[in-house]
Structure formats: C-alpha cells, structure tokens
Specification:
Elements lengths: L2 E6 L3 H12 L4 E7 L3 H11 L2 E2 L3 H6 L5 E4 L6 H10 L4 E4 L6 H13 L5 E3 L6 H9 L6 E9 L18 H4 L1 H12 L3 E9 L9 E8 L4 E7 L6 E8 L3 E5 L5 E5 L2 E5 L8 H14 L7 H20 L3 E2 L3
Parallel strand pairs: 1-2, 1-4, 2-3, 4-5, 5-6, 7-10
Antiparallel strand pairs: 7-11, 8-9, 8-15, 9-10, 11-12, 12-13, 13-14
C-alpha cells in the first residue's frame, strides 16, 4: 500500500521533498502541500499535480495524508510537530527540531507518548562522504581532535533576515549540522562549549560563529560556520592516535593517513540525500523500528545550540546541559 504524505512548508526546500516524494521513493507519494504564500502554493501544487491546502491543520486532518513532512522555519516547528503527533500520524521534521531548548524538552515528552516517533531530517547523516568517514573512524584509534567547518553564501531567504521571524542564525540553522555530525561520528556527547559569534552581513542574526567544545571522553572539537562569503566549503578533519582523516563533504573525497601510508577514497558528495531520508522514514513507519535520528538526538543538538548562545553572551566557556 502506498504511503501518502503531505508537505507543510513547500518553499525552496519543501519543493525538493515534493519532487523526490513523487518520483524517487517506491511505495511513497505526495498528495497535498501547504504554503503560506497562497499563489505560490497553488502554482506549485498545480505544477506537480497535488492538492494545495492553505492551512496546516487541514492538511494534517486529511484522510489521504498518511504522514506529514514539516519543513517550515524553526520558530513554527514545535507547534506543527505537536499537531502532527497529536493526530497520531508519522512525522518527518526538518532540522533544527525546534527553535529553542525549552520547546525541544516539551517535544521530547510529546514524542514519547505518540504512536509514531518523530523522524528528524538531519540529512547530512545520509551524505556518502560522512557515511564513509564513520566507517573509517575506528582506524584512527583514540581521537583527540575533531574540526568541522561549513562556509556558505549569505542567505537569500527573507525570513532568515527578519528579526521578527527568525529565532537564530548560523548557530541554530547551520551549526546543528555540525553538532549532530560530531555526535553521530564519535558516538560521544558534548560537555562544554566556548563560542563566539558575529553579524557580518545579516542584519538580524549571527552569520559567523566559532566554537571550541569538549566531548565526554575529553576529545576537543573545533566548529565554524561562515555564512557571508561568496563561496562554499564543507570539510571534516579528525586526528587520532593511529591516524588522521580529512573529508570534503561538499565536493567529495576523503584522505586517510596512517604512518607513512596515505589512502584516498573517491566518494561523491553530490548524491541527493532527501530520497534516502524519505526511504528510511518509510521503512521505519512500515517496520515499526526506531528512527536513526529521533527526538532525543534533536534535544541533544539543541542543548549544544543553547550552550553556544549562552557562551557567546557571557564570553565564557559553559557546560552543556546533561
């Protein structure tokens, strides 16, 4: 039986879910979408042959919507996620899970009581370069240093430049990728963060942040997001007692160095991840298995986000809430 989904938040990113949901995941299709801009939403729905609904509540209630994808700005995630969970329908929620730590705590409680656990769309976990890095990680021995950086062009999304709508900048919107990747790759949790942030071009929120963190095994972590440059980069570097690993998860490729030996892996990074995310969500729904990224992962990430903002405000290193 085909799993029919509705998309709430069919903007630039939401339209990707519509396209991939209609064409690239056997056993899954899209029946409805919701978008605040009615004219744009109706045009998008007509273009893809699905139904447009102006209200999120109406989409969630539709009998031919079996599951819901939420990819709206994070300020609305908690409310919309609670609505879907209360309806008893499977939920794929885009990152960050919520806009604030307090909302994340409440959503974890709601998720625990829901018939279907929420599936968090931390899509970089499905990046082939990241998957290969995780496979190679044990070859490095004990890891003492991890460095991650993402550098992007300034946002063109109006809501990310509107202080009345956005609830965070590069720490919340992009940093969550880095925080989640560190946890995913290392299997450890953050215990301490010392972060600084700056507004370079964005008039509303930070578009540059640097953070130094420590994990619960003593490993140091260096994190950077630069979202003001007319260029792009996304790299990972890991230094362990038995070797070093460097990976480019934007353009592709990894380099493993152990002793005098160097091994290169030609792994592509341009594979679309959303079909893989949708495929695994469908499998979890059908099999009743826990999601690979769930509400507690989202909470752990928001704890690091909260620590970064607290540290930036005080100018001091702070503990990450356990």
């Amino acid at each position: 039986m085909t799993f029919r989904i509705g998309i709430i938040g069919a903007g630039a990113h939401g339209e990707r879910y519509v396209r991939h949901g209609l064409a690239d995941v056997p056993g899954l299709t899209v029946t409805a979408l919701c978008r605040r801009d009615r004219a744009a939403g109706e045009a998008l729905a007509a273009r893809h042959g699905v139904r447009y609904l102006p209200e999120a509540a109406a989409l969630v209630a539709e009998p031919d919507v079996d599951g819901v994808v939420v990819c709206t700005p994070p300020s609305s995630h908690a409310t919309l996620a609670a609505m879907v969970l209360a309806a008893g329908k499977p939920l794929l929620l885009e990152k960050p899970m919520t806009g604030t730590l307090a909302e994340a705590v409440r959503l974890v409680a709601l998720d625990a009581a829901a018939p279907h656990p929420l599936f968090l769309g931390q899509s970089l976990r499905w990046n082939p370069v990241i998957a290969r890095a995780r496979e190679l990680w044990p070859l490095l021995g004990r890891v003492h240093l991890v460095r991650l950086a993402q550098r992007l062009a300034p946002t063109t999304l109006a809501w990310q430049r509107d202080p009345h709508e956005t609830v965070g900048g590069s720490v919340l919107l992009t940093g969550v990728h880095l925080f989640d990747l560190v946890r995913h790759l290392s299997g450890r949790e953050f215990t301490e963060i010392d972060a600084r942030q700056r507004q370079v071009l964005n008039p509303a929120v930070e578009d540059l942040f640097l953070a130094r963190g420590q994990l619960d095994d003593g490993c140091w972590v260096s994190l950077e997001v630069s979202k003001y440059t007319q260029s792009r980069a996304a790299w990972l570097e890991v230094v362990g007692e038995d070797g070093q690993l460097w990976a480019d998860y934007l353009e592709g490729g990894l380099v493993l160095r152990r002793g005098r030996d160097e091994e290169r892996f030609d792994v592509p990074a341009t594979v679309p991840t959303l079909p893989l995310v949708l495929r695994d969500w469908l499998a979890c729904v059908r099999d009743g298995t826990p999601p690979p990224v769930g509400a507690r992962d989202g909470l752990a990430t928001l704890q690091v986000v909260d620590a970064c903002y607290r540290s930036s405000t005080t100018g001091k290193s702070v503990a990450v809430a356990p």
